[in-house]
Design a protein that fits this description.
single chain; 282 residues; alpha/beta; Rossmann fold; Pantoate--beta-alanine Ligase, Chain: A,domain 2; six-stranded parallel beta sheet; three-stranded antiparallel beta sheet; 38% helix; globular; binds pantoate
Length: 282
């Protein structure tokens, strides 16, 4: 596996592969890799001859009171995991390489509407930061395809929209959420949970699955299902940001003609803010 910290090195490697007719697949991450990330790497391996992963904790997507400084960083362990997964190139730039004028002074990418709802309402500027860094990374790597996890369903929707709106010639691959045996979706932020909180955390997935089962069973009182979801989370000791049912395609409120919906929730448990979702065909 090659390791690159500069944009120029990445461009040179990828262009050489593409000249040789090889398909390049890209997996952007913030590092601190776990089994959830490794499933993205597996999906990448299945879609092309070469795969590139980036490790970059993007300051632009963190709010002033969020965990940017404390976000877990494990670059050498990540490099070993990527090597074992068959990654061809690991790109781990520093902040100055990605934002030479500083993140504050840098051009930004805004995906209106989608960025202000759900997590966007509670994390103002977050999706602008995500859209900007993903746009930059896609321009740097110029992959044929890029893989994103369904765990961050709103992020995936924002990225699909940005790629369409900006006519970017990249295929977006969605990889299913990887869960621990008790249902908790894998996330670097699970490390913030104490042992007692970790034992309670799967209640988030159970609440989403219960809502999905009601929808699959034919119930259509979305507000009642959302209210019950919020109540369940509060009873389990979470502080909820939202529990919502949306159209899976564009996160608009579902109507009588909606056939593919997603139940999404974000809730705090101790120091951790957990997000998860379940899709349902109705
Ligand atoms: O999902 C993540 O890890 C990040 O939001 C991403 C897509 C790598 C952008 O920083």
């Amino acid at each position: 596996m090659r390791r690159a910290t500069s944009i120029a090195e990445v461009r040179a490697a990828v262009r050489e592969w593409r000249r040789g007719g090889e398909r390049v697949v890209f997996v952007p991450t913030m590092g601190n890799l776990h089994a959830g990330h490794m499933s993205l790497m597996e999906a990448a391996g299945a879609h092309g001859e070469r795969f590139v992963a980036s490790i970059f904790v993007n300051p632009m997507q963190f709010g002033p009171n969020e965990d940017f400084a404390h976000y877990p960083r494990t670059p050498e362990r990540d490099a070993q995991m990527l090597r074992d997964a068959g990654c061809d190139l690991m790109f781990s730039p520093d902040v100055a390489e990605m934002y030479p004028r500083g993140a504050e002074q840098s051009t930004r990418v805004e995906v209106p509407g989608l960025s202000d709802i759900l997590c966007g309402e509670f994390r103002p500027g977050h999706f602008q930061g995500v859209a900007t860094v993903v746009c930059k990374l896609l321009h740097i790597v110029e992959p044929d395809a890029a893989v994103f996890g369904e765990k961050d369903f709103q992020q995936l929707t924002v990225i699909r929209r940005l790629v369409t709106d900006l006519c970017m010639p990249v295929h977006i691959i969605a990889a299913p959420t990887v869960r621990d045996a008790d249902g908790l979706a894998m996330s670097s932020r699970n490390q913030y949970l104490s042992a007692a909180e970790r034992a309670r955390a799967p209640a988030l997935y159970r609440a989403l699955a219960a809502a999905a089962a009601r929808l699959a069973g034919g119930e259509r009182d979305y507000s009642a299902i959302e209210r019950d979801g919020l109540r369940t989370l509060e009873a389990e000791g979470f502080r909820s940001d939202y529990f919502a049912i949306k159209c899976a395609e564009d996160l608009t409120p579902p109507g009588p003609d909606s056939h593919h919906v997603v139940v999404l929730a974000a809730a705090h448990l101790g120091r951790a803010r957990l997000i998860d979702n379940v899709q349902v065909r109705v």
